[in-house]
């Protein structure tokens, strides 16, 4: 018997994606045991509290972020792969601390699909979304959980979004060893167009900003998350581009995931998801 979520996925065309049954896996929701391991204060994320977040390394250095959407598919940004050979990359799954790789799953990438309408200028990337397929699927666990996708066309105006990643903690600073998080307010399209980025924006993009917080280099491709009332996160956006880091004149720009649900579905056939 289908759950409500399973029915929704079928209605929006995700019937191609098989559902994992008979497990405790829930998309967008870490286990209760993991969530209880809280570290108070700072921007340090509770270990494994965002268990869909992956690190994509190139030549053993932080390159981009991403999020598990099935047991073998990573949602990330197109610019993370457009000019770099994915065969030189490694994906770390179930990671919290770069200095502790025990129990972390390591995978290579067997293929990458960049959105066919991806374009790039000196300032911005458009249709900046990609799906990387792992060479070997992973098993879901307390520290590896897929993220939920939004409904087609779903909007998140004025909601609080969370970005997570191991990217640089400032323009001239190095990557973080531990997973960091920041809360941002998702702007309306009107507010986004009223920023100094207006001439570079497209309807497939969304803006988010909070004073002193932003996605920075190395967080590209990572998820912008929104916590839903039913108690799970959905991926509202993909970290795409910006000017500087945490500059109040220039909010961070994200690819609207809800605009690409059909595209994502068509390129994740055969991947396993949670059934609730």
TrEMBL record:
Residues 39-269 form the Peptidase S1 domain. Pfam families: Trypsin (PF00089). It comes from the Eukaryota. Coiled coil: none annotated. Residues 1-22 form the signal peptide. InterPro entries: Peptidase_S1_PA, Peptidase_S1_PA_chymotrypsin, Peptidase_S1A, Trypsin_dom, TRYPSIN_HIS, TRYPSIN_SER. Keywords: Disulfide bond, Hydrolase, Protease, Serine protease, Signal. One of its GO terms (molecular function) is serine-type endopeptidase activity. GO terms for biological process: proteolysis. This is Trypsin-1-like.
């Amino acid at each position: 018997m289908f759950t409500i979520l399973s029915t929704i996925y079928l209605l929006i065309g995700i019937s191609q994606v098989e559902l994992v049954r008979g497990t405790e896996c829930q998309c967008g929701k870490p286990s209760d045991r993991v969530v209880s391991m809280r570290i108070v204060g700072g921007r340090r994320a509770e270990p494994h509290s965002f268990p869909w977040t992956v690190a994509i390394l190139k030549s053993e250095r932080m390159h981009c972020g991403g999020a598990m959407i099935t047991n073998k598919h990573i949602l990330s940004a197109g610019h993370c792969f457009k000019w770099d050979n994915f065969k030189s990359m490694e994906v770390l799954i179930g990671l919290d601390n770069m200095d502790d790789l025990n129990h972390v799953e390591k995978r290579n990438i067997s293929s990458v699909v960049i959105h066919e309408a991806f374009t790039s200028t000196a300032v911005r990337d458009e249709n900046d979304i990609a799906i990387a397929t792992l060479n070997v699927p992973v098993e879901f666990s307390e520290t590896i959980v897929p993220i939920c996708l939004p409904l087609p066309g779903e909007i998140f105006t004025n909601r609080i979004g969370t970005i997570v990643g191991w990217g640089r903690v400032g323009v001239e600073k190095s990557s973080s060893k531990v997973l960091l998080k920041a809360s941002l307010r998702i702007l309306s399209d009107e507010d986004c167009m009223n920023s100094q980025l207006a001439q570079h924006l497209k309807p497939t993009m969304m803006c988010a900003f909070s004073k002193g917080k932003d996605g920075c280099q190395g967080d590209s491709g990572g998820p912008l998350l929104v916590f839903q009332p039913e108690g799970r996160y959905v991926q509202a956006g993909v970290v795409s581009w910006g000017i500087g880091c945490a500059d109040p004149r220039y909010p961070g720009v994200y690819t609207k995931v809800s605009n690409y649900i059909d595209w994502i579905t068509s390129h994740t056939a055969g991947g396993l998801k949670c059934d609730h």
